[in-house]
Amino acid sequence: MKTTLVLAVLACVALTAYGKNVQVNDFLCDTCVTFASTVKKFVDEELPIEDVEKAAKELCDLLPGDLKDFCEKDLLPEVENIYNDVSKITPQEACQDLGFCDA
After folding, report:
1. Where does the secretion signal sit in this chain (predicted)?
2. Quick check: is 102 in a domain?
């Protein structure tokens, strides 16, 4: 149930950011940080990586058009890296390391 709620919130945040006239770099960074923050919540709840990967895939499937493409092509392949990193660094730092946010 918590997973569904977190995914719904992430989808709403991502769609809100997607609908605004924001620069691409800010959009990619904001989306990555939101995604990484959600992964961090799963890590904090001690969910296994397999469950996190499944939930992330389900989230990407819910998103429209270009947002779905970005999620599938750029964020999903990084779920394991984010999962391993967010216990040591912030979601913002994880996204900087991945190149989605400026330092």
Report:
1. 1-19
2. no
Q: Which domain holds residue 76?
A: 2-97
The model's pLDDT over 23-35, given as tens digits with 9 standing for 90+, comes to: 667 888 998 999 9
Neighbours of 11 (CB within 10 A): 18
We report the CATH number of the domain holding residue 92 as 1.10.225
- CA gap 47, 71 in Å, rounded: 21
* Count, residues in the chain: 103
In a domain, 103, yes or no: no
Count, in order, helices (H) and strands (E) of the chain. Answer: 6, 0
Which residues of the chain are under the pLDDT cut of 50? 1, 5-6, 9, 21
Instruction: Please tell me the distance from the alpha carbon of residue 97 to that of residue 54, in angstroms, as a whole number.
Output: 23
Condensed to tens digits (0 to 9), the pLDDT of residues 71-86 reads 999 999 999 999 999 9
Could you tell me which of 31, 23, 21, 16 has the C-alpha nearest to residue 69?
31
